[in-house]
Design brief:
Blueprint lengths: L2 E11 L8 E5 L4 E5 L8 H15 L7 E6 L10 H8 L3 E7 L5 E2 L9 H14 L11 E4 L2 E4 L12 H6 L1 H6 L16 H8 L5 H9 L15 H17 L1 H14 L23
Parallel strand pairs: 1-4
Antiparallel strand pairs: 1-2, 2-3, 3-5, 4-5, 6-7, 7-8
Helix pairs in contact: 1-7, 3-6, 3-9, 7-8
The structure holds adenosine-5'-diphosphate (ADP) and magnesium ion (MG).
């Protein structure tokens, strides 16, 4: 289960991405990046954020804490921006919160080398969940207190946008090649063999079960072709298990892409400011 908080103030919109997340204060004195179920992309991106985010966390990858955030749309009443007002009005009840990392930098692959071990693990994970949104144009990685964090997993598990097709042909997602050509860490010398050795055995039924259990029923209810939220959860677990078991179909492609990647985009100069990334983060 994710921790649950109640929003008490809208602070400001975050306009870097496309979905207009909002920075909000909550009743626990915390500040959260809130992603709204009433945004154009709908609730499925929030489901993907939770399942992939919790899966990454279970694999030891750094992801800001996820919470559910209760929203009273009245909080948007005084907002001068019509788009924000509308978004809040359309998002009563449960929304998704990420622990806000104040002052975090967008990860710049030209300035910081994350190292083969970390790069391999992130690429392996992105291949598993089919993340199409970690390119060098839009890294969806943050740098905070010298440690990298993974964010924005809304564009993963894309099979759920067509459940009928996924149920009819589960092998299609399981075996689909992962296009790593634009991945931000492709030129960082990712060690995919080490990642596979370290991570594959961690993707257990227990971990997948915990990740899908963290999704609120409300975001799974009413899915066509399923008899309730738990059936949808089981389908996610089946799809991800099949994907894991089909690594021979997609992992060699990533390995080959990494081996053939030119290092042009890679770090050639000393990081500025001069420090090395700390990973895993110091606790
Ligand atoms: N936990 C966080 N802490 C600090 N900044 C964040 C956090 N999450 C997102 N951001 C900032 O907000 C931007 C948009 O968030 P993101 O999850 O990528 O949403 P989008 O779907 O709009 O791309 C990010 O590029 C980043 O700059
Ligand atoms: Mg983004």
């Amino acid at each position: 289960m994710l921790r649950h908080v109640t929003a008490i103030r809208y602070v400001t919109p975050l306009r870097e991405g496309g979905s207009l997340p909002g920075l909000m204060e909550a009743d626990d004195l915390g500040t959260y990046v809130v992603k709204f179920h009433g945004a154009g992309q709908g609730r499925k991106v929030l489901v993907a954020e939770i399942i992939s985010g919790e899966l990454a966390r279970g694999l030891g990858l750094p992801v800001p804490e996820l919470t559910t955030v209760d929203l009273d749309p009245e909080l948007g009443r005084a907002e001068p921006d019509q788009e924000v007002q509308e978004l809040l009005r359309n998002s009563p009840g449960l929304n998704l919160g990420l622990d806000f990392l104040p002052g975090a930098l967008d990860f710049d692959p030209v300035a910081f080398s994350p190292g083969p071990e970390f790069a391999g693990r992130v690429l392996w994970f992105d291949g598993l969940v089919g993340n199409v949104d970690r390119s060098w144009r839009n890294t969806n990685m943050l740098l905070w207190h010298r440690s990298p964090y993974l964010i924005d997993h809304g564009a993963t598990l894309i099979f759920h946008h067509n459940w009928a097709g996924a149920l009819a042909n589960p092998a299609a997602f399981a075996t689909r090649a992962y296009d790593a050509a634009d991945h931000v860490l492709l030129t960082a010398g990712p060690d995919l063999d080490a990642a596979d050795t370290e991570l594959a055995h961690l993707v257990t039924g227990e971990l997948l079960g915990a990740a899908v259990a963290a999704v609120p029923d409300a975001w799974l209810a009413g899915e066509l072709g399923f008899d309730g939220p738990d059936e949808v959860r089981e389908a996610y677990v089946r799809q991800l298990t099949a994907r894991l078991d089909a690594r021979d179909a997609w992992l060699p492609g990533i390995r080959a892409a990494a081996a053939g990647a030119d290092g042009n985009r890679q770090v050639t100069r000393a990081p500025n400011p001069p420090f090395t990334l700390t990973w895993p983060p110091r606790s």
